[in-house]
Amino acid sequence: MPVVNVYVVRHGETVENANGIIQGQLDTQLNELGRMQAGRLGDVLSGTAQAIVDEQPEGDLQLVPDPGLRERYLGDMEGKHGSLMRRGGVPANAESGPALVARCLAWWDSTIVAIARSEDIPSPVNVLAVSHGAWIGTMIRSGLASRNYRGRDKFGGPLFNSSVSLVRVDEGGRTGEIVTYGDISHLLLVKKDGRWVKPDANNADVLSNEDDEERRAGFEVYWTDIEHILSDASPPYQLPIHSRHIMVVLNVYLVRHGETDANRQGIVQGQLETTLNATGREQARRLALALKDVEFLHAFVSNHTRAIETAAAVMKELPTLKWTVHPGLRERFFGDLQGKKRTNGIYPPSAEPLDKFVERALQWWDQELLGHDIVQHQFDAKRDETRNVLVIGHSAYLNNLIRALGSQRGFDITAAGKVKSINTGITILEVGDRHGTRGKIVQFSDVRHLQEMEEEVVKVNVEDGDKKARRMEG
Question: Could you report the per-residue pLDDT of 309-336, keeping only the tens digit for each?
Fold first, then answer.
């Protein structure tokens, strides 16, 4: 019966890894650095999967896709930023920890232990298993530890992309030893005189593989410039452990339409068609001046007349800005209350249910704003970028959207407080990733552009249940 050396490798880096997005069982691809990491691993081992196969003599290594090595299923958290799970924990519909341990051990027994118990395979046998961070950590630190494998003192540090853990299984598969855990020395080597060697330890661009504290910190602080690496005319070169996270920030300017007579009179509009009054037109003109120096990628506008008129005034100052009129931004339907003054905080049964209204707003946010090709393209930037989009809508819609982003998406909306939006007030939401799973309000209903108007702004939002006047701040 053979001794089995199992080289357990975490896949190379993906775009999602670099941006802190939870992948779970989502299908993602290696980014540029991930492909380089896998290639380097293939070079050094000579013997993430296809890159290693490419280094082998034809026919010496068989590549077998195995569903038993799939990553842990993380339910509703897949595709979202890791900070959400750190705050809220693993979701209820994720694969449980005990279930993952059982799945890992089932694969180990049916594959590795079966080889170790074979009577007709010469010793030693080398097996390469390419899998994922949670799978590998659970398999070794929980599964094999429960079977009293030796070498558990070697646990430590994170499992970086393309890291190698070596487990040696004794004859018969009953016991074994964890020889190395999460080794990344192959990323720190350079080629000298035809040999891979560790570079000068004083090189500031190298994280010492022995310094566990630096290894832990490396995930956050390690520096790299992929373009510089790729343009190096005389490789080989050291590879970084992790890409520096490219900071692409999307500022979403949320603006309420200008004033209407219904606003002035305290009448609920909802989905009634109303037009800007003289004050509203002046507010829109001042709004345009306040925004004229902002470089916007695109504008999204509700298809209600009062929103379109507000947008038209803005476009006079930003004539090249392209804008999309979308019904998904329509105000909440208030049923029998529309066209009437609101006397209490109760909406009639004929009104659009609040949960359906919020669902509609979030659907627009996900599909039409974040899903827009222009917006998604910005998150593919190769350098730090800050981009802006403009949204012109309505008080109940924008306020409920903000609340939902806070309660359901983990946005920091503390800057909003209990303040309601004012006509043409400018709110800025900072969105930190393409999936919209993290962000914060950096400005709420700013109306400094209205300070010198003779007509006082309407400070009560009858459509959003605000019974108290809001003082316009200087």
Answer: 999 999 999 999 999 999 999 999 999 9
